[in-house]
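Hi R.,

Here's the chain you asked about this morning:
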Amino acid sequence: MQRSRLDATDWDVLVCGAGCAGTAAAYGAAMAGARTLLLERLGFAGGTPVAGMIHTLDAVNSCADHTQQVVGGFTSRVMEELEACGGMGTRDNPDEVISFHPEHMKVALDRVLSRAGVNLLYRAHVSDALVHEQRVTGVEAALLDGRAHFHARCVVDATGDAEVAHHAGLDWQQSEELQALTYHFRLGNVAPGETWQSLEAAMQAVMQGSGMRYGGPWVIRLTEHEVSVNATRVIGNPLDPEERSRLEMNAREDMLTIAARLQAGVPALRESYILAGATDLHVRESRKVVGVYTLTEEDIFSGREFPDTIGLGAWPIDIHPTDGFVGVHPHKDSPPHPYPIPYRCLVPKAHDGLLVAGRPISTTHRAHGSTRVPGTSLATGQAAGVAAALAARYRVSPRHIAVRELQRELLQQGAILSLDQVAR
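And the predicted structure, written out as tokens:
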């Protein structure tokens, strides 16, 4: 049967990766009038919060004041869709996080993106970048029926690991001490009656003295009888294929060991069982692209203002340690006030035709501990998508677009660029 090939179209904007950054980028580009294609290696959108089973959108609300929503636009549309289809998590969770059920999130993202006019192609894994005279012109992707080339006037790398940037030969950095990785899992048939605080405290007490590497444990309550558990910790380089395979196998073994210990020691979990383990490891840190500007921890805490602000960050410097520390590492004691992120962090220092969004934007290791989370990725993603649309519209490099026009379009789409917009 003959079908129309999406790779036969010259796209305005091509977005690679359908996690928080990529879905927001595709939405922003399409709403700005660009012909937009979104490629995703899995069969659903949502990225780490869904495939990695985080189940929360951290930093959509300020950690310093949870009554302040600091990321809007596409994020607000998705939360409205989640509410409409019954996919929001319970209110029995930490005040600063927004929780959701992963299966509902997959559908909510499909709906919001489709309504915006985004073309989605699942099971499309980026395998190479197409580059001409130091300008990224598209990507090669492995599809179910073979490899295909996709061309666009501007490409957004929202792969999480900066795969497009890497294939294109851009400069990137990797910290010497990468953050710990986690294999999240869900427990069902949890007994009622415990709050998230009391359940978490009981789990942390049971894990003490276990002799194994673990974090927290922390829980997110999805329903009265279902919780998501953040506890496993594996250490290594997620970019090394052989090591990544070993990490995933070790993490699954740790899941069984930790779940058994919790079931034996926590009364509310005695009759519980593992509903599911994550599709992907929760990778907190890998590549960071070298951008025109590199955000620092000092920028975050000094309240430094930028003329090219495209969104707000709001999460603490949250770095999961790899030095043998177990339990709850200090990270929420001194959260920053919402801080601006400059557009230049999304623009690679070298090469044209490409923008980076989400986890790999240009930051220091310490600043990355704050910017890496889902809410901030949503903000940088929508900005990258709109910027890509403007670059395609005017046929200029992303580094040469008019920042004021970018900011105006983001505001029209409901994005939040300053605390003056934040309603209590």
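The mean pLDDT is 94.

Let me know if you need anything else.
M.
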